Amino acid sequence: MQRRLPKMAAAAMLAAALAFSTAVPIAAQTKKSAEGTMPKVGDVAPDFTLQYFDGKDRKDVSLSQYRGKKNVVLAFYVFAFTGG
Amino acid sequence: MKNFQQNLKALEATDTQVLGVSMDSAFANKAFADQIGVTFPLLSDWGGKVTHEWGIYKDEYQAPRRVNFLIGKDGKILEEQVDKDAIDPKKIVDACPRPTLKN
Questions:
Q1: How many angstroms separate the CA of residue A20 from the nearest CA in chain B?
Q2: Considering the entire predicted model, what is its pTM?
Q3: CB under 8 Å, gap of 24 or more: what pairs does B57-62 form?
Q4: Considering A73, B48, B88, B90, which has the largest number of Cβ atoms within 10 A of its Cβ?
Q5: Distance from A35 to chain B by nearest Cα, in Å?
Q6: Per residue in B36-69, pLDDT tens?
Q7: Where are the domains of chain A?
Q8: Strands, E assignment, A1-84
Q9: Minimal-distance CA residue of chain A relative to B64
Q10: Partner residue opposite B56 with nearest CB, options A38, A41, A69
């Protein structure tokens, strides 16, 4: 048993190294698949839930909460405190 | 954002909710809204998940491009403006009172 321990440790290290080496490409793939294409006129807008701060609390807003009730203007802007 | 604020009454009169979105924190956006007098929500896409999913992330900015969408009550996109064209929201504002939207 005593003699097998280093072997097991080596195996564990090898497994860890393998897991680490494969982790990078997997993460890269995940990022790529999350990169969508911009929806076009006529497409159904993808739903999302984001938060804003109203001065007291953070509030959730989902696009779907306006479905059948209101039109929505969604204005993406580059940074706060810039013009436009 | 100021441009939408200036047109907010016209937009609200046609049953339209305005939402700003950026990758700033919710708190920075609140400070920004207060500074420029914006009364509609400025949503925080912290981490950029939605920005990436919508294909709006621009590497050069490390932030979203400037894009305006008008989304109808059925959830479909009716109009959009990108980059420089998105600075003046007139096209979006003008599109709102169209009879097709009043359903």
A1: 24
A2: 0.79
A3: B57/A35, B61/A78, B61/A79
A4: A73
A5: 5
A6: 999 999 999 999 999 999 999 999 999 999 999 9
A7: 5-66
A8: 49-53, 58-62, 71-76
A9: A78
A10: A38
Mean pLDDT of B1-10: 93
| Bridge partners (DSSP) listed for residue B21 | A76, B43
Structure tokens at B29: 């956006």
Q: Contact A77/B22, CB-based, under 8 Å?
A: yes
Residue-level pLDDT at B77 = 96
Asked if ipTM goes beyond 0.95, one says no
The encoded tokens of residue B91 equal 């096209």
Instruction: Indicate the residue of B15, B64, B82 with minimum beta-carbon distance to A78.
Output: B64
Domains of chain B with CATH codes: 2-97 (3.40.30.10)
Strand order in the sheet with B16-22: A58-62, A49-53, B42-44, B16-22, A71-76, B67-71, B77-82
A52: which chain B residues are within 8 Å (Cβ-Cβ)? 26, 29-30, 41-44
Q: Please, is B70 exposed, middle or buried when counting C-beta atoms within 10 Å of its C-beta (0-12, 13-18, 19+)?
A: buried
Provide, rounded to the nearest whole percent, the portion of chain B with pLDDT above 70.
93
